[in-house]
Design goal:
This protein is 47% helix and 16% strand. The chain is built from six helices and five strands, in the order βαβαβαβαβαα. By secondary structure, the protein is of the alpha/beta class. The chain has a five-stranded parallel beta sheet, with helices on both faces. Bound molecules: D-ribose. The site of D-ribose has 8 residues, from helix 3.
Length: 152
């Protein structure tokens, strides 16, 4: 898969560690986030990774800020995107199996590298189960559609 990474200035080191890990699993990595010494507010990489998903440039996205909260909120503002802030691997698996999330987010000030690796592994190996979950995800899409109508 092609995996996109986004991070603010609070999460450069954890982003680098996760990119190395994901590359070691054989995936291609694209970096949309802040680099060493660069200040980047979390909405910027959150939006960039969300848009890359919608363009089909990446298969899945991994977002990291201080808490994982701001960057996931930003990504979720992009219609069609489902991003989940997770602090443990169970939720990271279920956010794909049940919610068909394209993006997982977590916080560099919240979890350590080992838990982050477990979250990434759970997220990347999970598949959407469809079935009863599909109708619920469609209802989320209906909310997007209702609020993104443009007036003529
Ligand atoms: C940046 O200091 C911090 O606010 C940000 O990384 C994040 O935690 C916001 O949700």
């Amino acid at each position: 898969m092609i995996i996109g990474f986004g991070n603010d200035h609070a999460a450069v080191a954890l982003k680098k560690a996760m990119m190395e890990h994901v590359a070691s699993l054989g995936h291609e990595c694209i970096d949309y986030g802040a680099q060493d010494g660069e200040k980047m507010d979390y909405p910027v990489p959150g939006k960039a990774v969300a848009e890359a998903v919608l363009r089909g440039e990446i298969d899945k996205g991994i977002l990291i800020c201080g808490t994982g909260i701001g960057i996931s909120i930003a990504a979720n503002k992009v219609p069609g995107i489902r991003a989940a802030a997770c602090s443990e691997p169970f939720s990271a698996r279920l956010c794909v199996e049940h919610n068909n999330c394209q993006i997982v987010a977590f916080g560099a000030r919240v979890i350590g590298e080992g838990t982050a690796r477990d979250i990434v592994d759970a997220f990347l190996s999970a598949e959407f189960e469809g079935g009863r979950h599909a109708a619920r995800v469609e209802l989320i899409g209906a909310i997007d559609a209702a609020y993104c109508r443009t007036e003529e």
